[in-house]
Design goal:
The complex is a heterodimer of chains A (about 450) and B (about 300).
Chain A: H1 2-30, E1 44-49, H2 54-67, E2 73-78, H3 80-92, E3 99-102, H4 105-113, H5 121-126, H6 128-132, H7 136-139, E4 143-144, E5 147-148, E6 151-152, E7 157-164, H8 165-171, H9 179-191, E8 195-198, H10 205-219, H11 221-228, H12 238-252, H13 269-275, E9 279-285, H14 288-295, H15 297-301, E10 305-308, E11 323-326, E12 330-333, H16 339-351, H17 356-364, H18 375-379, H19 384-396, E13 400-402, H20 404-407, H21 410-424, H22 430-438
Parallel strand pairs in A: 1-2, 8-9, 11-13
Antiparallel strand pairs in A: 3-12, 4-5, 6-12, 7-9, 7-10, 7-11
Helix pairs in contact in A: 2-17, 10-11, 10-12, 10-21, 21-22
Chain B: H1 6-14, H2 22-42, E1 45-46, E2 54-55, H3 59-66, H4 68-100, H5 104-118, H6 121-131, H7 138-142, H8 158-183, H9 187-195, H10 200-211, H11 213-226, H12 232-237, H13 249-259, H14 263-287
Antiparallel strand pairs in B: 1-2
Helix pairs in contact in B: 2-14, 3-14, 4-5, 4-8, 4-11, 5-8, 8-11, 11-14, 13-14
Classes of the chains: A alpha/beta (about 450), B mainly alpha (about 300).
């Protein structure tokens, strides 16, 4: 009898522990919002992203709050993927922040269409200083139907082809300037037991950089402009099919690291393959320089990291100086914010962001601010080679195409990433991809 | 069972007062039925989560029902359900029987087996994602090439990896259910069997298994219906990929709603999910027979 009692107590204790664990994890799910801001409903709120620019933004806001206690901004950070879903749900429910962090493109347009973000055209017109501080090619990404709804807030992020100079020296090769040279390098690196390209295929969006650049080099910026403009059958552009075919040829040749579909870019495993010498090259955003500078300081400092633009494709129409990537991130201001929140937000935009200290902090982190007249600051940086290179790339690009998953509507973007994944896995043919994607036009 | 007065006998026959169910019912109405009706309504609308909700007739339903991805999601869900059951049921039954005996070492092992259940699904998924990394994971780390497969990137392999990780996390729970079930079987049954000369195997098949009938039904219901709700673990582990290889129905619903921002289609998928879940639960309950509340111990 007593034995049974003990057993029973043990079991109920176990159940209690389980119940507690379950409710704790549930509570953890529920409390991920910025609970701290609840104290003052009228304070100006800002949601930023974790990662390379987090300390820079934190510093900028700290400095602002110290000098402007009456217009203090409450700042919270979220991880990239989680942020994208959270902010949309929050804005839809009228619980969004005053400052909405974004990428421009199709997502910004959906906010504009539903009247969620404020028109800043008048503000820009009456503050020429604000307008003139930005690179014009970047600024125009916040303009929709001729009105400014978003202002750039950090650094230019073109997609760059990085390479490991050590392993290139090892096999005595040069960085590829054309697609044919690139394909010729594949068997050489394979013979040396080095993967030609690293790829964070599990995260899907790194796959997209290959398609973006190949279509750009083969067909020029118009091919994607037609797709983004929702022209019927725009995916049938021959450049798309040729680009997809080239991708599958590279997959067949063993161009990508073994198990690339298991490699996650979110955990920086893809860049780790490059700086550990397991892979020779990687096509990635300008932002991974910041990551490598932190995770592989010696590798970057000793000049072993090389970078070039994407190779040309013979017979291609695209200007080799054209760039794809993210021109910048942007601040939009919620149209649902109170007048005092809006005023504080605009005051910050006017005199709190891109202060000398902000710009310097961005440069120190290994990023290129989207502002004009920073050449001398870049030249004084220990990362001057890379930074000047990226700055020149962005400034001189005849066309800077926004990452397609941001440029398109969310429904199209989601279908595109899933189907492109299938292309890399060779589960579908380029023709199937084109047909499926044509069906999403206008969605 | 010795009731002395008529009134208390009547109470027993009628069962306890229906009012006892009231708090649960109110809760259920507010947090299950009401949202369910909301979802049903949303499935006939077009809404991107931001703007106006517009009535849109059956268009979400035709989109969902003609989309090959939906069919694929159903197939993947069915596969995961089947393999999860095939893997989890025997293991947890055997472990449950094993840990139900009273030896000290078995109790110690039971505690160890229990650990995965205490970890959050997201933590389990992140840990496995790191362990299974083909370049920096367990295989290369230990120098064991056969562990360095393309576990999460191979469309044919990934389903079984997901089944394995799910089993790793949930077998402890079902083991616990079976352990409790086995401990409720009266020792007298086994004593009688021993006297009749039954061996251990005979005892297991003639006493333990039949006596566990309802435990098996409960555990199986939880396994099968639960596999309709696998989301967090798969979302973090594979994100539904590669391609659509692990895009389960609930994951498909989430991605449609919150990534593609098509709340109408996502709601239609949600309704489909509810209907399938209810149907499965009903079928499994039926399998238990009509008088499933009757005692299994008659004649004992």
């Amino acid at each position: 009898m007593e034995m049974q009692m003990v057993k029973l107590t043990l079991r109920s204790a176990a159940i209690a522990v389980t119940a507690a664990a379950v409710s704790l994890s549930l509570a953890a799910c529920g409390s991920s919002g910025p609970a701290g801001s609840a104290g003052n409903a009228d304070s100006t709120t800002m949601w930023g992203l974790t990662g390379g620019n987090q300390p820079v933004l934190q510093k900028s806001i700290d400095a602002w709050n110290k000098a402007h206690a009456d217009e203090a901004i409450k700042l919270d950070f979220f991880a990239n993927d989680a942020y994208k879903t959270k902010v949309r749900t929050a804005v839809g429910a009228g619980q969004g922040p005053t400052f909405i962090y974004g990428w421009g493109g199709g997502v910004l347009k959906s906010y504009v269409d539903s009247g969620q973000v404020a028109d800043m055209s008048d503000f820009i017109a009456s503050n020429p200083d604000v307008k003139s501080r930005y690179l014009p090619s970047v600024l125009k990404n916040g303009v929709i139907n001729g009105k400014t709804y978003a202002l750039p807030n950090n650094n230019v992020q073109p997609v760059v082809l990085y390479f490991n100079k050590d392993v290139f020296d090892k096999i005595g090769a040069q960085a590829p300037k054309t697609w044919d040279e690139l394909m010729a390098l594949v068997p050489k690196f394979k013979a040396a037991g080095i993967a030609p390209f690293s790829l964070g295929g599990q995260s899907k969006w790194p796959d997209l950089m290959w398609l973006e650049y190949l279509v750009e080099r083969i067909g020029g910026p118009d091919a994607f402009a037609n797709i983004a403009a929702n022209k019927p059958g725009a995916w049938s552009d021959p450049a798309v099919k040729e680009a997809l075919t080239k991708i599958q040829e590279l997959v067949d040749a063993g161009g990508f690291v073994n198990g690339f579909s298991s490699v996650a870019a979110d955990s920086n495993a893809d860049q780790a393959l490059l700086y550990t010498g397991k892979a020779a090259m990687i096509l990635q955003g300008g932002w991974i320089y910041q990551g490598m500078k932190k995770d592989a300081a010696d590798f970057v400092k000793s000049g072993k990291l090389g970078y070039i633009t994407f190779p040309t494709v013979s017979g291609g129409k695209g200007d080799p100086a054209n760039v794809v990537g993210n021109p910048s991130n942007f601040w939009s201001i919620s149209s649902k914010a109170t007048d005092s929140q809006k005023k504080a937000a605009l005051d910050y935009v006017k005199s709190g962001m891109f202060t000398d200290a902000d710009t310097q902090a961005l440069i120190d982190s290994g990023a290129v601010p989207v502002t004009t007249g920073i050449e001398s600051k870049l030249a004084a940086s220990p990362d001057k080679d890379f930074l000047s290179y990226v700055y020149g790339m962005a400034k001189n690009a005849p066309s800077f195409t926004l990452s397609w998953d941001q440029a398109l509507s969310p429904a199209q973007g989601d279908a595109m990433l899933a189907n492109l994944d299938q292309i890399f896995l060779k589960k579908i043919s380029p023709d199937q991809f084109v047909t499926t994607m044509n069906a999403t036009i206008g969605k | 069972m010795s009731t002395s007065t008529g009134s208390s006998r009547r109470v027993l026959e009628k069962g306890p007062s229906g009012w006892l169910a009231a708090p649960a019912l109110v809760f259920f109405l507010l947090f299950a039925i009401l949202p369910l009706l909301g979802v049903l309504f949303l499935s006939f609308t077009k809404w991107d989560g931001l703007g106006e909700i517009k009535l849109d007739g059956l268009s979400s339903w035709t989109t969902v029902l003609t989309d090959p991805v939906t069919g694929n999601a159903l197939l993947v869900t069915a596969k995961i359900m089947f393999f999860s059951f095939i893997v989890q049921a025997p293991i947890s039954l055997l472990l449950g029987v094993f840990t139900s005996a009273s030896q000290k070492y078995r109790a110690a092992l039971a505690v160890l087996y229990f650990v995965p259940l205490l970890l959050s699904s997201a933590a389990v998924a992140i840990a496995y994602k790191a362990l299974l990394d083909p370049n920096f994971g367990l295989g290369p780390g230990l120098g064991l090439p056969f562990l360095a497969q393309d576990w999460l990137g191979n469309s044919d392999l990934v389903l079984f990896v997901v089944v394995f990780v799910i089993a790793w996390q949930f077998v402890p729970f079902h083991t616990l259910i079976y352990q409790g079930g086995v401990r409720q079987i009266p020792a007298s049954l086994y004593e009688a069997a021993q006297i009749d000369g039954a061996g251990r195997m005979q005892q297991f098949f003639a006493i333990t298994l039949p006596q566990l009938k309802y435990t098996i039904i409960t555990s199986s219901t939880l396994m099968v219906v639960g596999s309709l709700a696998y989301f967090d673990l798969v979302f973090v582990l594979t994100g539904g990929g590669p391609g659509y290889a692990t895009r389960l129905l609930p994951l498909h619903m989430y991605l449609t709603g919150f990534k593609a921002n098509d709340m109408g289609a996502a709601s239609a998928l949600g309704v489909i999910l509810v209907v399938i879940g209810l149907a499965l639960a009903l079928i499994l309950q039926r399998l238990g027979g009509k008088n499933r509340n009757a005692s299994q111990l008659e004649g004992a």
